[in-house]
What does this fold into?
Amino acid sequence: MVESPGRAERADVGHAVLYAAAAALGGFMFGYDTAVINGAVGAIRDRFEIGAGGTGLAVSLTLIGAAVGAWTAGRIADRIGRIWVMRIAAVLFAIGSLGSAFPFDIVDLTLWRFVGGTAVGLASVISPAYIAEISPARIRGRLGSMYQLAIVLGIAVSQLVNYGIAQAAGSASDNLAGIQAWQWMLALAAIPSVLYLLLTSTIPESPRFLVAQGKTAKARRIVADLEGGSAERVDERIDEIRSSLGTERAQISVRQLFAKVTAVRALVFIGIGLAMLQQFVGINVIFYYSSTLWEAVGFGEDRSLLISVVSAVVNIVGTFVAIAVIDQIGRKPLLLVGSVGMTISLAVAAVCFHSATVTRDADGETVATLSGTNGTIALIAANAFVFFFAASWGPVVWVLISEIFPNRVRAAAVGVATAANWIANFAVSATFPALSEWNLSTTYGIYAVMAAVSIVFVLTVVPEPKGKTLEQAG
It folds into this structure.
């Protein structure tokens, strides 16, 4: 019996969605790990008696681990495959989560966070690259956005878990079943890594990696399953992939990416710019420090944790908006709308924080207090910023940096761009506590300027790969 084209197309899309969903769990680890510290940071500060600088370092040094993982992920993946890198990331993440939950001191905690960060860095390169490499062109934007959806779901779940644990224990510093609540928050992060390890054992290797390794027959079966079409059309796609890999067989070093002025080098700089601007607008400040930030402007611990959950829900809604329209209207229009929205909302927040009354508490730490109206407006502006980011720069950057590079350099180039993303993330996260103590309004003003810069960047240099195969896009 000959299967109808419509039925075959649905089957192909179904397999692609399942494979992408499994790989996207790396994004869930990313989101959970980077946000779970939000509910624990105050308790960690009190437990180890550290100031703003030490707190920033303990929270953000994990991001340096992520940068290291991202920088090395491409070369490792080109040698042993995308699936094995995902599995290594899952194991490292579980070890790092449990180690950071039961540290001897702040140095030990920071080292374990570095290990977990390395795992997140590996996954942050390989998961979106794998999704791009197994996705049919017509739905690659939506499937690529699943990675960001997994990130925001990880953020939301971690916020809910933090809130539930803190409520059950009384606060993040109190004991729950003989263990401090903040330790439960960090230890439970090991659960998604186990799920990631199990699911990545059920999905096929990237057909582009298989072609690079000379395993053409296996690659042909996967392409036929995902893209359908006649045997001749599948052979044409395999030949197209093989041709795009060139003679280097996808084995290219990071140094070679910058060796001379080429179209590839220009794309790498565009990828780096996208990745760094995604962080320089200050998005992760909302998730790393939102509880302590909203406490500082007049909300109690329980209410500030609940506000963090609301922000996470707004993040999810915005991401679904991006998934719905990215393959229809394209990448650049989404980025532009997001940039304008972020610029306005950040500027409003900066103006609100300008009116804050700054005092010092009994411990000598700076506390900013907003009046009722300005506090409400600042809260609305912050969530508007989250929405515009989630509907644009959140998912679109990961989609773009996984599809604009040629096959032969994709893994290495995505690794470089993602490492830049983590370094920028570190810079913003490590400096925010000190900057906010200095002048919270100016800090948000800086992020607003970065959002305005992103408008110019998108208009002048960002390409539009909508509807193209990876071979055509790169």
